[in-house]
Design brief:
Order of helices and strands: HEEEEEEEHEEHEEEEE
CATH architecture: Roll
Number of domains: 1
Distance between the termini: 90 Å
Shape: globular
Radius of gyration: 25 Å
Strand content: over 45%
Largest sheet: 12 strands, antiparallel
Structural class: mainly beta
Amino acid sequence: MKIKLLGLAALAIASLLVVPVSAEEKAAAKKVMLKEKYEAGLVITETGTETSQTTTTITVGAQSAEKIEEDKEEKEKVTEVQAVGADGHISGARVSHNKSKKSHAEQDFGAAELGEAAISTGDLEGAVFTWVFDAEKKSWSGKLEKGDDNKGTKKALAKKEPFKVPFIPGKEVAVGESWEIAEKDLRDFFADDEAMKVSEITARCSADEIIAGKAGESLKVTFVIDIKANLQNEDLKNPEVTAKITGHYMFNIGTSLIDSVELNTELSFSGEAPGRGGEKIPFTVKMKGQEIMTQTYKKAEKSGK
């Protein structure tokens, strides 16, 4: 009898343990087709705010001083999808950069507080691009339809892959699953930068959880991007820059489109700068930034005859 009671007790304990485990396995086993689906005539409005604070520390003798810079940019971009390939990805589009408002404030070395912010317009404001994908050559061609030919527009046109996001694998993933991004896909997505030459870039994503909201269920995908690069400045001997970008995007399961993205960036580099008398002044630069973007979608209005 004692053995039988012990056996029943063991079964009772086991049943208590099985319930939460099976529920956890059920949640973890849920899969989502993580692939964007577009259609011709779709209009995508992306609004975003980017903020950053950069601290430069210099050392002269036994003393050190700091310079602080704060930047903010508010932007809006509208993408009109003109054509879609058989894979559901954009193959032709018109992109209008409607807004790029910037502010920059400095607290110089020895200053007690930040100075008044200077307001400016970003290089991309007013720029309109048309993009067409050549299926035979498997490459994009971009054209500046409207706007100034400057560093910002040149960088935008340098993108080898303007629309396909490498952090979206284009396949079914399970909640809890992680995957890495190919270096080539990362380099194609991030345009070359004249000021920074990237030597290494890696990224890893994870399908964290499914969250219910007003727009329906969304899969939260987190990511970590590690970058090693060299600042292109011969006076500073092209110092090595280390950067880490963390963040997440919300993938709407019902629409198969991204609703929002958050990026958090940290980077740093150090070296020696030439002083006025030819001496070497050690310095360290650290930057922290955040960018939050939201996307809304609607069908293009048909013009009346």
